[in-house]
Input
Amino acid sequence: MIRKTTYEGNVLIRAFISQEEKRYTTMKKIILLVIPLILFTLSYTLESFAFRCGETLVSIGDSKVKVLQECGKPTSKEKVGTKKVRRYRKGDHYNRERHSSQQRSFKEVTKPVEKWYYNCGKNDFIYILTFEGGILKNEETGGYGKGESQCRGN
Output
C-alpha cells in the first residue's frame, strides 16, 4: 500500500516502509505456523523412542528391572553376546584429547548384550528391546506379531 503525499521523497520512503511491513507480517504468519508444527514433530519423535507397557512408557536408559516391572516377562529372550567398553578412570575423561591412548589410564569392561522380544499380537508389532549391561540401549520393531497379545495393557 503506497500513500502519496506532496513530497516526492516522502512517497518513496512510505512505499519502502509498506513493503517492509508486508514482509514482516508474512514472516510472522509463517513463524506462527511453523513453530507448532516443529513442536508437534518433536513430541511425536520423542515418544517414538519409548515402548508403551500398559499405562507407562519404558525408554532408552531404563534398567532391565524397571522394564520387567512395567512390562512383565518378555515373550522370549536372546543372549546376543558381549560388548567391550573402555571406562576411563576418574579425571582422565577430561583430558582425553590431550594425551595419546597409551598415556591414558582406562579399564576395559565387558558388558553382556541381551535382546528381549515382546509379541503384542496380530494387530500390533513384535518389539525388540536391546540391553547392554542391564541398561536398555535400543528399541525396534520386528514385524507384525502373531496370535494373542502378550503385552501388558493390550
